[in-house]
Amino acid sequence: MTKHDRSIPPIGQREPVLRLQEVDKTFNGGIVALRRLSLTVNQGDFISLLGPSGCGKSTALRLIAGLMRPSLGRILWEGGQGSDDLGVVFQEPTLMPWATVAQNVYLPFRLRGKSYASVKDQIAESLALVGLEKFANSYPRELSGGMKMRVSIARALVTNPRLILMDEPFAALDEITRQKLNDDLLALKANMGATVIFVTHSVFESVFLSDRILVMAARPGRIVKEIVVDAPYPRGLDWRTSPEYARIARETSDTLTSTLRPEEIH
User: pLDDT tens digits for 84-131?
Assistant: First the structure.
């Protein structure tokens, strides 16, 4: 696995990876999931899509992943898109229960027709990045929920993608495991210089992880505000307990609350 350049320029000086231009998505029955969504994703960004249920966060990820097509607008990859440009982590680990951890991580290569022997070193390195090198021959039933998610992350990383999409990957985990995986995710980002789009409902998670938070509103799904989190990486407990973290969390929460209808505020 050849790592990306770890030196990430400041926001505003990064090279673009992907552009969404005036993207609409309308489903059958006239349901407008997204309207005029424009977004530039730059190399090294950690972007959180934050918003209420039904605001189109997951739809945006599926459009970027090529799992569906926009109704209007364009999605453009700088330099064109290759088969290894994208890694995806879903809310559930979606592991094959009959396959070992290593065989689960091998799946993206298997789908491309590559032999296990030709990529075994990349699989081993990806497992080492998530701290599971000793569990290569274990089966999913032998792993905790957090470990299963680490396998899913290793599978997304193994092809060294230009962009990683993460759709609420830690939502089903307990708070302690979730915070640990947040820490580990930032360590992986620092190690690889990765570019990440992360879907979450959590204000606190978005402020901890991101350098750009895109707050979305529903009906129709759209970006209402971008909040820049200009705090250096790596981040840890000092960041979580800092006045600046609290200030940005409050701004983000206020923005999110302003997008909700009265009946949605409890």
Answer: 789 999 888 899 999 999 999 999 999 889 999 999 999 999 999 999
Right CATH number for 16-259 from 2.60.40.1180, 3.30.160.270, 3.40.50.300, 3.30.479.10?
3.40.50.300
pTM reported for the whole predicted model:
0.91
Half-sphere exposure of 235 (CA within 13 A, CB side): 26
